[in-house]
């Protein structure tokens, strides 16, 4: 069955629901009923795409014993209220004896079982889950926790098996395709998009390309960009088209812009060097045009060098930076290199009803080295959708990793063989909140209470909220005060970081003049509060005794360890200092965050 997320991901899944529901209810019994609500949870989960990124997508539907919908909700972003907790709160007493439908097993941050606790305390009797969490250290944890509390848990593909259940589970898989790819490989989920004429050209022989597709198609592209963590183009696209690569669709997530250029033959002035709305990263070969690198750096553009520039290495790098999905809008040469490197998972091809001809007119994909039609790459799960006068054809270049059969979680493996422990290492890396030690991150969803300017306690939703706001605290300026309030009320740590970094970049004069001297102290106080407030986090930190803690950020050379260990790793150092203090091994004052460089 062809399922896809294109014109409107939710509407496409709805179409598939209707198609699947054509199966005889009498043949599938209650399975058709369960499958419909699991699909509804997948539709809800998809609603968060285009907001704070990156994060997994979770949806929850709660139904009463009579089958009526009591409530439904979705996770806005990492660090915000779980979908399950929102749905339970909305349902109230209707939760008693109810069934909760989830597109994916909850994946709480270390030691926090907010989703599971909400379902248990709300009185839910049964939980139907579309798929287990694909991250191995989280896989099966929530299922076991729910069952241990006496709830009936049914998993699609395991406890519930039928054709209609297979279709419902596929909807759940597609909604979290980027997370599944991350769990199974070292590259983000990558989508290649292009628009071409009916005769397969992406521009005229002269190079002119505006506009091949319709306004409706272009608006859809803005939406698709906004669903990704980053959008990538090649140098040729920058030189010829001078794109902005923004998601101009009325708000939502703005993906990072990536330019891939081996020689750095790029213009000194370009729309992509305007950092007022969103950041740009240029990846290039080591040593290329040092003068332009310095110019770009002066504009705030980050330049990352590779010994040999190729799509596979670039994607592995952005995988390490925590990116889940990449949207490729490049020309034929780079598209061919990306396909040949095996990093492209899905294709969106907009075909306009136009013919332009031209022997030398460029095509969407360059040379792949194929000489016979039998070598052609066939798309999987092909979908067709009319967008204005254009036809959108989409499909997968490679199948998504199969989540079946069930892979045991780390805890299950350890129960069978106690000698197996992936965490035994002299170095423990942490970065994203979904990692095994993700709760060490500033972005973990743990609110802290800290003294305010007036001596009263102020609640911050995360350490990152507190840290970003303190860049502007004490500045006698209306915009600085507004920034503090915006950061404080940001729904997620990612949004707080985006507001703080953007304002620092746009208005460096609003940043307190002593910031570079006090930022370590600010971070130290916030971390100390966090690990003093939450007992289970304190226990986790102490469990790392004997190991070096390294924030595995390949681009932050101050707080992180850097790409090749060249970073200062101040976040890891502060955590190790706190660990020492909690163990009583440090003779220095707990109020002194001084660290040897």
UniProtKB/TrEMBL annotation:
Gene Ontology MF terms: 5-amino-6-(5-phosphoribosylamino)uracil reductase activity; diaminohydroxyphosphoribosylaminopyrimidine deaminase activity; hydrolase activity, hydrolyzing N-glycosyl compounds; NADP binding
Pfam families: NADAR, RibD_C
EC supergroup of this enzyme: oxidoreductase
PROSITE patterns in alphabetical order: CYT_DCMP_DEAMINASES_2 (PS51747)
The enzyme's E.C. designation: 1.1.1.193
Domain of life: Eukaryota
InterPro entries xref list: CMP_dCMP_dom, Cytidine_deaminase-like, DHFR-like_dom_sf, Eubact_RibD, NADAR, RibD_C, RibDG_C, Riboflavin_Biosynth_HTPR
Catalytic activity: 5-amino-6-(5-phospho-D-ribosylamino)uracil + H2O = 5,6-diaminouracil + D-ribose 5-phosphate; 2,5-diamino-6-hydroxy-4-(5-phosphoribosylamino)-pyrimidine + H2O = 2,5,6-triamino-4-hydroxypyrimidine + D-ribose 5-phosphate
Ranges of residues in domain CMP/dCMP-type deaminase: 32-154
Keywords: Glycosidase, Hydrolase, Multifunctional enzyme, NADP, Oxidoreductase
GO biological process annotation, one example: carbohydrate derivative metabolic process
Pathway stated in the Swiss-Prot or TrEMBL entry: Cofactor biosynthesis; riboflavin biosynthesis; 5-amino-6-(D-ribitylamino)uracil from GTP: step 3/4
Protein name: 5-amino-6-(5-phosphoribosylamino)uracil reductase
Gene: LOC107485964
